[in-house]
Design brief:
The protein is α+β, with helices and mostly antiparallel strands. The protein contains 9 helices and 19 strands. The structure holds flavin-adenine dinucleotide.
Length: 403
């Protein structure tokens, strides 16, 4: 049996791939099985000094993701002998990654695409796993989709269950059992009762903040001493009546040297404009996302610290300058342009390949693997889900041979 702890981007596809070939799988999640449109209720709370977005529930942060799917870190993973070309092809087909049909490109997004093109930036539609026949373009992806119009890991969990996998939700006090530096199983409690499951393969997929904490308890003390989070801000201003807030979000993409840009509504922009005649319908905004130097860390109590380097700040400034030019070209009143605070939604790198796990994602404890954003060697500065899915598919193939 393979025990998978966590069922987000890393855990869901792993459970699906293994269960498909009749390998017994048990998924243990701290979170509950929820309706996708309840995602908003399952965001995690961090220290008030850090604006980090993750969710705890079956499907993990994919429940609130925008389903943007971009290949990343090819060269860096190649350095560890990892070539994901076949896995990317497989996963993109499996979840139908594609650029949105023009029917799902709204007026604000069109202005973004045209303005960026006129400025000579490297612009395209965003590859997405959003399905035109279901998506009602409500702009609510980050709250959890009300119509299940996008891919989430929950669908892999559902398929895995159909293939015979067992799902345990709402588990507490989860601990990994070891004997002679090899994995022996997992213990957990639920509804006041304690349970023990035996297995010589355990895969940690609890996300980049939680997986390193399990590792530290087993003596892998350098786990979580490094952390990136792909910082982002959203900057925007007023174009009266653009109705961008009701469009499918992040359907366009600019790739710069040190940043990516994508059209993205934030109600925080309107709040900062302090003009009662301006409503959410009047805002056009752009998310600026950058890679960071990974100068964060996780404390033993799960609190997170993020420090910024000169490069982190420089990249953000470069991205904001480009976003400002696009907004101006698109017709936004430049005197109204505001920014959200500095935030992060892609924590990773806390159990990196080459440091904490090997290129098969195995730790120094035999049979204990990590398969989530923790293993990414550096900050991609781009949506990481597709890379996590591809790495997970690669691990599934490796475990199929081992079993
Ligand atoms: C609002 C938002 C939008 C995003 N949009 C995109 C996007 O469009 N494209 C993209 O590529 N990325 C996006 N991301 C980032 C992406 O969702 C994450 O990078 C990705 O889901 C990380 O995968 P993971 O497997 O590491 O963790 P997660 O997907 O978060 O999964 C972690 C799992 O572990 C469980 N868990 C948590 N704590 C414990 C514990 N202590 N013990 C056991 N289980 C636990 C959780 O319930 C969950 O099942 C977005 C993130 C946010 C917050």
């Amino acid at each position: 049996m393979v025990i998978i702890i966590g069922s987000g981007a890393g855990g869901g596809i792993l459970a699906y791939e293994l269960s498909k070939v009749n390998i017994p799988v048990t998924i243990i999640d701290k979170g509950d099985y929820i309706e996708t449109n309840d995602g908003i209720k399952h965001y995690d709370a961090y220290d008030e000094n850090i604006d980090l977005l993750t969710t705890t529930c079956v499907g993990g942060s994919t429940i609130v993701s925008m389903a943007n799917m971009v290949r990343a870190l090819d060269n860096e993973l190649n350095d560890y002998g990892i070539d994901l070309t076949d896995e990317y092809d497989y996963v993109e087909k499996l979840i139908n990654v594609h650029e949105m049909d023009d029917s799902h490109i709204g007026d604000g997004t069109r202005l973004f695409l045209d303005a960026a093109g006129e400025l000579g930036l490297n612009v395209s539609k965003m590859p997405k796993a959003v399905y035109e026949e279901k998506c009602v373009q409500c702009g609510m992806c980050a709250l959890g989709c009300p119509v299940d119009g996008k891919w989430t890991s929950k669908s892999f969990v559902d398929d895995a269950i159909e293939n015979g996998a067992q799902l345990i939700t709402g588990a507490e006090n989860i601990g990994i059992l070891t004997e002679n530096n090899a994995v022996a199983g997992v213990k957990y409690s639920k509804d006041g009762e304690e349970f023990k499951l035996q297995s010589d393969i355990v895969v940690l997929c609890a996300g980049a903040i939680n997986s390193p904490l399990y590792l530290r308890k087993l003596g892998i003390s350098n786990a979580g001493r490094k952390l990136f989070f792909d910082p982002f801000v959203t900057i925007g201003g007023v174009i009266k009546g653009i109705n961008f807030n009701k469009e499918l979000q992040m359907a366009g993409l600019v790739i710069g040297d040190n940043f990516v840009l994508s059209p993205h509504f934030s109600s925080f922009i309107r709040d900062k404009i302090h003009d009662e005649t301006v409503s959410n319908e009047d805002i056009l905004a752009i998310m600026v996302k950058t890679p960071d130097d990974g100068k964060g860390y996780i404390n033993d109590d799960g609190s997170v610290v993020k420090e910024n380097t000169i490069n982190d700040i420089r990249y953000m400034a470069e991205g904001c300058a480009a976003a400002g030019m696009i907004l101006e070209k698109a017709g936004v009143d430049v005197n109204t342009i505001k920014s959200t605070v500095y935030r992060g939604a892609h924590p990773g790198g806390s159990a990196a390949i080459g440091e904490i796990v090997d290129s098969n994602l195995e730790t120094s404890i035999e049979g204990l693997f990590v398969d989530d954003a923790s293993v990414l060697p550096i900050s991609p500065g781009k949506p990481p889900i597709l890379t996590i899915l591809a790495l997970s598919k690669r691990l599934a193939d490796y475990l199929k041979i081992e079993n």
